[in-house]
Specification:
Largest sheet: 8 strands, mixed
Structural class: alpha+beta
Order of helices and strands: HEEEHHEEHEHHEEEEEEHHHEEEEH
Strand order of the largest sheet: 6-5-4-10-9-3-15-16
Radius of gyration: 24 Å
């Protein structure tokens, strides 16, 4: 009897000790990436760059019970209205003709549906137009004036002049500087600002610009691509139901060739989400980054068990190996809400809001030198 009582008592003591140990572990925060977090804290909003008002708008929506998709729309719309960094929303980056156009994307990590618009003219609400494509068509991407016509037919305001006094002034100064720098290569301008012909064009007229030196990369892409020459808000939201959505909005590269589409509306490049795994947000030189689908790479790396920080670094390293001069960054977020960033060529910042924070917190990511040599 005494022996039996001893074993029962010991067993109860062991169970009690284990329960206390498990409870203690659940209260200990884990250090991961760039933030000390407790596991599974929802909702969560993450955005590229210190776009504080955009994150606040998304947070208000998701904290009030909105879906991840709707919160992303609220956040990106706020950035469009505020013209974040002058490169999101109407009135921002002009193309070679002085016109501003919109690129945007939204992706539902539950259904894997995507809606996107590219080179959209005359409609200022890029992210809302992208959502309409997802909601009311079987397509993924609409472009140009046809995208504008669709958005207006679905109730968005337009047609609207998307230029501003600032964008026109920027374009005028660029024209006065002989349209330099630009995104042309291996061409000869007939006049300072074109039209352009390939350098091997056989019938070069006499009026060809006297400075017929072949137009190559001017110094480097840094002359054309920088922190304020083009930018994207890329946002991820995990809602209270633990569903994930991502979205992007941009008016593209400053002085881009008309018709150019960057990585903003390309699923897997500027953003990607999968409820089973997590999400990714990206920003940078879209012409380079879209060739690697870095956000799809990040999510698939996390699916295979890679931690967010390593997944982000790996995706950036793959690009840097081929294009060591590129500028770009990604943020990886797993389904637990753990996040981390990686960048190349610049110092990158991203914004986070989650329960327990009084306001948006900005995280700084330094360039990872290892990515250059990977």
């Amino acid at each position: 009897m005494a022996i039996t009582a001893f074993y029962v008592s010991s067993s109860q003591l062991l169970r009690s000790t284990l329960l206390k140990y498990i409870l203690l572990l659940s209260l200990v925060p884990l250090v991961f990436g760039h933030e000390v977090v407790e596991l599974e804290q929802y909702p969560l909003v993450v955005s590229t760059w210190p776009f504080l008002e955009a994150v606040r708008a998304a947070w208000r929506a998701v904290d009030s019970g909105s879906s991840a998709v709707d919160a992303v729309v609220e956040g990106c719309s706020a950035c469009e209205e505020l013209r974040c960094d002058g490169t999101v929303g109407p009135g921002g980056s002009p193309d070679e003709n002085g016109e501003t156009t919109m690129d945007a994307l939204i992706m539902d990590g539950v259904t894997m549906e995507v809606g996107a618009v590219a080179a959209m003219r005359y409609v200022k609400d890029g992210i809302k137009a992208a959502k309409l494509v997802m909601q009311h068509t079987e397509h993924t991407l609409l472009v140009g004036e046809q995208a504008s016509a669709f958005a207006i037919s679905m109730g968005l305001p337009g047609p609207t002049n998307l230029s501003s006094l600032e964008s026109i002034d920027k374009w005028t100064k660029w024209k006065d500087n002989h349209c330099q720098p630009n995104f042309r290569k291996n061409v000869i301008p007939i006049n300072n600002c074109g039209p352009y012909r390939p350098t091997n064009y056989l019938e070069i007229p006499e009026e060809t610009c006297s400075n017929t030196a072949q137009m190559q990369t001017i110094d480097s892409r840094l002359a054309r691509v920088g922190l304020h020459s083009h930018d994207t808000i890329s946002m991820a939201v995990i809602d209270k139901m633990r569903h994930i959505a991502v979205g992007t909005s941009t008016n593209g590269a400053t002085f881009k060739i008309p018709g150019r589409v960057g990585d903003g509306p390309i699923a897997g490049s500027s953003a990607y989400a999968d409820d089973e795994v997590g999400a990714c947000c990206a920003t940078g030189d879209g012409d380079i980054m879209m060739r690697f689908l870095p956000c799809y790479q990040v999510v698939e790396s996390m699916r295979l068990g890679m931690e967010p920080k390593l997944a982000a670094q790996d995706a950036i390293a793959r690009i840097a190996k081929k294009f060591p001069g590129f500028l770009g960054a990604v943020v990886a977020i797993n389904k637990k809400g753990e996040h981390a960033g990686a960048c190349h060529g610049w110092t990158f910042k991203y914004s986070v809001r989650r329960p327990g924070m009084k306001d948006v917190q900005v995280f700084t990511v330094l360039p990872d030198e290892r990515s250059t040599n990977s």
